[in-house]
Amino acid sequence: MASRKRIGRREFIATSAGALAAGLGSACGHVPMREIEAAAAKVGRLPQRTLDRSGRKVSVLIGAADDWPPEVVEAGILCGVNYWHKSNQWDRDEVPQAIRKNREAYYCEVCVDRVHGNHETGVIDEEAFYQYVKQALERSGLRYFDDMLSPHFGYHHTAELKGNRGAIRAYERLKKEGLVRHLCISQHNYNGNARVPGGEDRVAILTAVIEEGLYEHAQFFFSFGDEEEVNKFVRFAKTKGFGTTAMKTTRGASRMLADPDFMKQFPAGTTPHHALARWLTTDSDLSNAVIRIHSLDQFVDTYSGAGKALRTADARAIEMMTAYANREVCRLCNECMSHCAEGVAIADILRYERYATDYGDRERAQRLYAQLDKRGDACQVCGSCLPHCPQGLNIPVKLANAHRLLS
Known about the structure:
By secondary structure, the chain is of the alpha/beta class. It has helices at 9-15, 19-22, 33-43, 70-78, 97-101, 126-140, 158-163, 166-176, 202-212, 228-239, 253-257, 260-264, 272-282, 296-303, 312-328, 346-357, 362-370, 395-406; strands at 48-50, 57-59, 61-64, 83-85, 107-111, 145-149, 180-187, 217-221, 243-247, 288-290.
């Protein structure tokens, strides 16, 4: 991977292909453009990588339209972030000017959820999916979506993938009309889920997705300390020209920063988010990754590591972060869930706890938690789940803490 030198703000802005000509600053709130430009100059232009068999070149770290602040979106555009996850969340007045003026230079994704329920109980409905995308295009004014991510959260099992073609038929109709161009998926684990009979894990389902050949790339949980089965899948996908995007990547990085005892021992010259970006983009076989960003400072800290090799300090940081996360943060593998006599949605609860603790989005976490049919206080502390956690987490304690946080 080619190295990138840090350059001055004026030089960076002058040499960022089409940045000023395209027009920036559509929705930067109260952050002055000079601060956005200065942040982008510290990061530099992001390297690109082939996404999938389509041959498209995409920045090694992509952007999130649904939860990045406007000033971070603009900085990302200046740095060459050219794939935007959940672009359907933008209204017309929120779409960055650069994308509106040079639409072909950016890949905008629409994310389509199941209907008549949540990701566990909802259904895949061809007509509903078709209409949703058309309405999202009308609302955003983007004219077309490059990628249709459908269904969001993925299939429950391989039987559903093979037996329910609603998402694929909706995509084919939309593609024929020139409204979408590529098909992708995000995939969660459903093994052991009491609300999803016969649910399977993400690796089993995504392996079947690749074998079918209809989807071009996928998003899924991936971070340091993941089980070898997931790393093996990423390597397999690469041999098939199937794109892989890591999501839920930080795995407790924010709580590490807030832990003074942990940070006291942390290697000098790096940070959890910076080391993570280096590791994701140079020490894995991923196509790219998405990292949630709260501010320009965090954008600089994180994205300035993209495409840069791990240094000794970064490698040591990843080792420490892995050990910390394995002690403290559920990796959402679902292995424990089939052993809960109460059918508590353990992985969902601990995912929402991440939203509140690591992403700073307590309101969203509490809203999702309130929608669960069984919350953390349904745990009877029987301990039947404990032998099945590969991390050895004290799950009842984790659930009790999450309940206090999210209630």
